[in-house]
Prior knowledge:
- About 55% of the residues lie in helices and about 5% in strands.
- It has helices spanning about 1-5, 10, 20-35, 45-65, 80-85, 90-105, 115-120, and strands spanning about 65, 75.
- Strands 1-2 form a two-stranded antiparallel sheet.
- A hairpin with a 6-residue loop joins strand 1 (about 65) and strand 2 (about 75).
- The two termini are about 25 Å apart.
Amino acid sequence: MSACCHSEQNLLSSSLLSKNIKIKIYRNTSFTVISYGCETWSLTLKEERRLKVFENRVLRKVFGPKRDKVTGEWRKLYNEELNDLYPSPKLILVNKWRRMKWATYVARMGECRGVYRVLVGRPEGKRPLGRPKSRW
């Protein structure tokens, strides 16, 4: 994931571009590359947390540091501040929405389609006896 954003690092942290343009760059490049094929992902909590961390890291680059009112020092933005600055749908929510959309599409398929049988849980054939062959 970081390799995708690493190529845009100079653009996202540039002071010459406005925040709106930086967000459009992120949405049109990194966001689309990362969410490619997300309809078929089965995300664990660990993977969801990694996606949130990645998205927050990119947004921190876009919005930059903030001067603390009390100490006057520069600091990173907190997650709540990022959520206030960027209210668009997050990567995890888009992922879940696309998975639900894909599931409804598959549910409308006929019973003869293999994808439908996998969704419903009725695979064909029998598994062989014994331990599965090791694959490398």
